[in-house]
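## retry 2 of 3
previous attempt timed out at serialization; input unchanged, resubmitting
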Amino acid sequence: MKRSTQTLLLASTAGALLLATGCVMEPDGSIVFHPPVFVVPPPPTVVVATPAPAPIPDSYVWDGTEYVGCIGDSYFYLGPGNIWVACDGPRLERFHGWERQHGGWRGHAIKNVRFRNDGKDHPHGPPRPEKHEEKREDKHEDHDRR
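## retry succeeded, writing output
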């Protein structure tokens, strides 16, 4: 290899090495160090889905294994922490078997005033009946007495 080729190859390798390490040759011939800049993308946004409020049946029954309540066509069992949880397949099958033997269970269901937790440690009170308070008329006949 010719001497000029070797010099050119050495200069090119040195230049590439200087660029790779962050060294830059200024127009005046001086070499300065500019560290490489790494742009890091922001972390992805995490979106936590808020679960729907836990359903709270107004009545429930003991099926011999656990408490089961019904809201419309959906069945719920009383899970850990007294939270109502949708019945899975095996629970629903067991309950329907119990239900076939206890046809009038809805008439004997327990009114739910005890297990009204919504799953977020916010207890719901019992369903409130409408109050029909009669307005009391103040009697003014005693006001002038001394």
